[in-house]
Amino acid sequence: MRARIAALMLGLAAMGSPVAAQVADLRSHHELRVCADPGAYPMSSEDGRGFENKIATLLGEKLNLPVVYTWFPQGMGFITKTLRAGVCDVVIGYAQGDEMVQNTNHYYTSAYGIVTRKDSALAKVDTLKDPALQGQPIGVVAGTPPATHLAKAGLAKDMHGFDLFVDRRVRDPVGDMLAQVKSGQLAAAVVWGPLAGPLVKDDPELQFVPLLKDPENPKLFFRITMGVRPAEQEWKRELNSFIRRNQTEIDTILRDAGVPLLDDYGKELKP
């Protein structure tokens, strides 16, 4: 999730600039131009396997437009060099409330969760306050909300930090974390659900349990939207209409991928 919410520093400051005043003219009406990370599987990938790729395909079909991609690794500079540069027109998955983009209505809610071996003594853990985690090596992405929760629970000394600010075409921090859980080097890993859920969906040794019992701030669930440029109200309304009319098909894509879907308040799994 850190990669999804990292680029906040520019905020809305650029909205008053001459470039921002012209953004309404940048959208293509001949292609669905998608801004995406080429190596962010299971979310997006250059080979089209990601669930965001499949949502983009569905969107293109409904709009009767061919889907074309601008690829750029997520992290600092992703939005400024893609969406705000005018070379593409929509980010398929973006956290609600991030001021780098204008958010559409959210189309799913998910949460961080804990990955353990199915045969582990920690297999029943569903909160970061569980005493069973004390003294156990736990993988977590540095700087993310669960890292704060782990520290509050007195587990700072047990955390093993991983960094998502990497080019994931050549490095795979989440895959490394899960491999270490499988080998026993880590007792558990706390990972964003849309990343971990699909990766352990069919794994006979690992399981993912969403963290729904840790209500204190920072929150461990996020509503996910599509992101467009701030001035493009008509485009946002068109995407909102797509989401409203095709929510069932979107949910099917997400469920088939293994994304844990929650209610809007992050309190329970969506039926």
From TrEMBL:
The keyword Signal applies. Keywords: Signal. Gene3D superfamilies: Periplasmic binding protein-like II (3.40.190.10). The keyword Signal applies. Residues 31-257 form the Solute-binding protein family 3/N-terminal domain. SUPFAM superfamilies: Periplasmic binding protein-like II. Residues 1-20 form the signal peptide. SMART domains: PBPb (SM00062). PANTHER family: ARGININE-BINDING EXTRACELLULAR PROTEIN ARTP, MEMBRANE-BOUND LYTIC MUREIN TRANSGLYCOSYLASE F. This is Methanol dehydrogenase. It comes from Paracoccus aminophilus JCM 7686. The lineage of its organism: Bacteria, Pseudomonadati, Pseudomonadota, Alphaproteobacteria, Rhodobacterales.
